[in-house]
Design a protein that fits this description.
about 325 residues; Uridine Diphospho-n-acetylenolpyruvylglucosamine Reductase, domain 2; Uridine Diphospho-n-acetylenolpyruvylglucosamine Reductase, domain 1; Uridine Diphospho-n-acetylenolpyruvylglucosamine Reductase, domain 3; alpha+beta; about 30% strand; globular
């Protein structure tokens, strides 16, 4: 375990917000979580972070930030069809993706290119290109802070939903995830229902493979998303809203090309990026903050923006969408 005082958070959040925290602790071994509990770290202000790709700091953090940097990827069992891989929370998501690709394990390749750590993946139930983390997560392990007891939650017990889980609702700010168990397929199978992905794959005559799918998705992401080494952002800033069929049909009369995805129980998911675009906000910029010109779901810090500036800007985007469609879009990003 390593502890640092008065740490600049600039390199700990992908929005590149330049603020300080009182203390930052890096947990290098799973058993060190017990030391945090014994030392009563959680009795004062704290925040557990991953790669910082889903955070927007608006003020200095007057407390302790805890970051898991534990490492380890191991196969724990397999049968003729599946393989179970246990991954420590501090592993880079990208490293885990390419471990699976290199070993010909199927099911997670569509999530390539998403920044962050493995321990964060179940919290947000990250997703892209018709695949979500819940599709491959078997179990999540960690410690419940309020009870000071360890836990193991099955997939069902994690209460996964769209960009949601028990870790963002009932157990919010009450857990340290230490490892995640994934179940992947040893048999060749792909999820390529997304139209843009189908078109991108068609540009490459090589036979379908994990590497080909991953390369196609990375190419798509690179055409739409900013390079976070150059522009501060948190990827998709807003959730896709879910509305009733009646609301969808009413809007569709005004916008016939409205993108929609059936959900269940007479509800429809709309594309927040398209709504922002149709509301005239794609590419809109005020000072150092703007909507990315190539992907309206992304809000960008062009350099030097404060968290408060970004909050004021995203609320303006929300209001514009509401004024145009009567729909409230919610941020995916955790505003601190």
């Amino acid at each position: 375990m390593k502890s640092y005082q008065k740490v600049n958070l600039f390199s700990y959040n992908t929005f590149a917000i330049d603020l300080l925290c009182d203390r930052l602790i890096e947990v290098e071994k799973e058993e060190e979580v017990l030391q945090l509990l014994d030392n009563k770290i959680f009795e004062s202000e704290f925040l557990v972070i991953g790669g910082g790709s889903n955070l927007l700091f608006t003020k200095p953090f007057n407390g302790t930030i805890i970051k898991m940097v534990t490492k380890g990827i191991k196969k724990v069992k397999e049968d003729d069809f599946s393989v179970w891989i246990e991954v420590q929370a501090g592993e880079l998501w990208e490293d885990f993706i390419f471990y699976c690709i290199d070993n010909q394990y199927y099911g997670i390749e569509n999530l390539v290119g998403i920044p962050g750590l493995v321990g964060s993946s179940p919290v947000q139930n990250i997703g892209a290109y018709s695949v979500e983390a819940k599709d491959v997560i078997e179990m999540v392990s960690g410690w419940r802070i309020s009870t000071q007891k360890s836990f193991q939650l099955s997939n069902d017990e994690c209460q996964f939903g769209y960009r949601n889980s028990i870790f963002k609702s009932e157990w919010k700010n009450d857990v340290i995830i230490t490892k995640v168990l994934f179940r992947l397929s040893k048999k060749e199978k792909y999820v390529i229902s997304y139209q843009g992905l189908i078109e991108e794959l068609g540009k490459n005559p090589a036979p379908l493979s994990l590497r080909k799918v991953a390369d196609a998705i990375l190419a798509l992401r690179n055409t739409k998303l900013p390079d976070i080494s150059e522009f501060g952002c948190a990827g998709s800033f807003f959730k896709n809203p879910i509305v009733s069929d009646d609301v969808f049909l009413a809007i569709q009369q005004r916008f016939p090309k409205l993108i929609s995805y059936p959900v269940s129980d007479g509800k429809v998911k709309l594309a927040a990026g398209q709504l922002i675009d149709l509301a005239g906000m794609k590419g809109y910029r005020e000072g150092n903050v703007g909507v990315w010109p190539k992907q309206a779901l992304v809000i960008v810090n062009y350099g030097g923006a404060s968290g408060e500036e970004i909050v004021a800007f995203y609320k303006k985007v929300q209001q514009c969408v509401f004024d145009t469609f009567g729909i409230a879009i919610e941020p995916e990003v955790n505003v601190i």
